[in-house]
Predict the structure.
Amino acid sequence: MIEIISAKVGLENVYLKTELSLEEIKKKHPERTDLIESMEKALKDLAEAKYMLHRLDLKNMSLSSELYRNNRMLLEMMTEIKELKEINKKLIDNAKM
C-alpha cells in the first residue's frame, strides 16, 4: 500500500512541476509553441496516468478488503470443519460401542 501512495505522490509532484514549467514557458517564451504544445500533451498524459493510478488504487483497496473477508470466511469454515470432524468421530465411536 505504501508503494502506491508513494507512486501517487511522485506522479503528483511531476505533474505540478510540469504545470509550473509550462506556465513559466508561456510567460517568458510564448513563441515556443512547439514546446508549449508538447508540454500540454505531457500534462494531459500525466493527468490520465494520475486518474488511472487512482482507479487502480481504489480497485486494489476493494480487492484487499474482499481478500480479507474471504480469508476470514475460510478460517471460520476450517474451524467448523474441524469441529464437525470431531463430532463425526465421536458419533462413529459411540455407534461402535
Notes: Helices lie at 2-28, 33-96. The two ends are 57 Å apart (CA to CA). Residues 2-70 form one domain. The chain has a mean pLDDT of 96.
